[in-house]
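Check out one such.
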Amino acid sequence: MQVTDRKLTGFLKQYFGFDSFKGNQEIIIKNVLNEKDGFVLMPTGGGKSLCYQLPALIMEGTAIVISPLIALMKNQVDAMRSFSTDEGVAHFLNSSLTKSAIAKVRKDVLSQRTRLLYVAPESLTKEENIEFLKNVNISFYAIDEAHCISEWGHDFRPEYRRIRPIINKVGTAPIIALTATATPKVQNDIQKNLDMMEASVFKSSFRRHNLYYEVRPKVRATKEIIKFISANKGKSGIIYCLSRKKVEEIAQNLVVNNIKALPYHAGMDAATRSKNQDMFLMEEADVIVATIAFGMGIDKPDVRFVIHYDIPKSLEGYYQETGRAGRDGGEGKCIAFYRYKDIQKLEKFMQGKPVAEQEIGKQLLLETVSYAESSVCRPKLLLNYFGEEMKGTCGNCDNCLHPKEKFEGQEFIILALKTILGVWERFKLDHIADVLSGNATSAVKSYKHHHNEFFGAGKEKDSKFWNAVLRQTLIERLVYKDIENYGLLKISEKGKEYLKNPYSIMLTQDHDYDINSDEESAAEGGTGAVDEELIHILKDLRKKMAKKLELPPFVIFQDPSIEDMAIQYPITIDEMKNIVGVGTGKARKFGKEFVETIKNYVDEKEIIRPQDMVVKSVVNKSGVKVFIIQSIDRKISLTDIAEAKNLELMELIDEIEAIVNSGTKINIDYFINDIMDEDKIEDVYEYFREAESESIQDALNELGEGDYSEEEIRLVRIKFLSELGN
């Protein structure tokens, strides 16, 4: 169908209100109108949907749009109907429809009112739908999210590989396959599977100039996220996590810190998911915390930040998710938290899967590690991954703004290239790094490469260093990865020329994000030095208060709590609750004078408090603690509670002490009275009333080790602290 440029621009204005096309849109649309197959690679925000929506409105018949997500279909159908006076212009056909709704769709399609019919791949495979579509005048097929066809893609769906045979059954028509992310390998896979190797290929640049990329070590990541969002109040953002549990946890933490956040994951019922998505789109919530199930096809142009709490399983997935930021061309910050331990966790999840699938998964993870640990310009790395060369650097990512020191790489590059040739260009990057560094792994030994002339040729450097060198040879196009045997390093023509006539190339060493980067073991308190002067002031206050209340000082606040106050400077009761060993009960009972004293001290000394250390956290009501408290309320014997939770009695006492020290009042009289004489209980209780320290050893020395056991003294101390301190 021939349409002049002027007429096409007229249609664009008439249907969508735009005066001009964006990027490759115009030539892609002309290709569809000329009834030719097309493969479209266009980053998120580039305007892919228009490439099939406009020709569908211009051409005779109905365009069949195959799309993987019900939410995406509904959004696009609503959008198309808003551009037309005819409600029947666009429909979707999927499992969410009732029988009467399906009948209405079919009637509109057959009467040629419908120009776009969105179909889920699962619906397309149903025999009744195949029979129905045989009677439809199909203008063309549009396959959205086409990367789902490829096992090498980040979102492989087996039913997508059945699309071509079904098209052949229904009736052939031109095909336009569209994706926002595809490496050369994935593109080849898509075209082969759809039998469209001769299709016109339209690639838009993957470069998004408005996006800022940063990778941070995963240390106290939740607090870092809260601090970042608080500094960007009212801005719209998405946080991605790999597990549903983490989604719920982070959403809760954001809410208690006065951030309007909602969770989104596949474990929630469809109505709640849909409601949360709509609240985010309608700006009733600022932040969505989600698994990767969220966001495909969501057209929210003003997402200002995308944060990855967990590093994704592939760079394609990562690129697509970050692509949801700044689609309007405005600010978009993309921050990922990384530690290698998370990669190892993802590798474990792959165990038990078919070997080929594991191999693909591991290779994709390796690419993600390369991206995270590299100190090279991040957009340059991403573009290189998608087969696009970028000149210069972006000047707007963490690596460009805070560059690592460069070193002369010529000698290292020559050795790396010779080693690749020395193992006949048949091995992957990490294997070659092991050979160079002299790391005799089982793989190296199995190929007898520990006897190769290049084994240990660069042993003064470790395999991490050689990984960095090899990655940068890829970026320099001296080396490439074999598209058919994914991951095997081959020397390019440029690389062969380099070996003949080497020249200076400056390299940078990778980051090491795993130094003390275990979030779970990192102390949740501060890392600042203790303010010794404040400690003395607070201990004096504690002593005065203890005298006034006729209590030992440790009953009010223990030393670790005083030290934490001298790091974090809590100046409200809410902040006092977050101090180690305080909790709500103690903060309310004893906190008032302490926070007033600290506030005066902070004002007088003009102290800048470490704000990132005063983030509120959701109280960690672990199952064990809740079980213990509930069991004690029901007066169950402590030995039975310990047995139920597979604990020694002393371990259970540790848990109970922690509960009491954080300010929760509990009553274990029923158990103590059962195992101890009244006189002994009273003696221990009175000892602690007069004691200067809470030390068990001091109590044993004073009361006599032969007469009292450690267990008895600890149980009475729990009673004492709970009754007088809480």
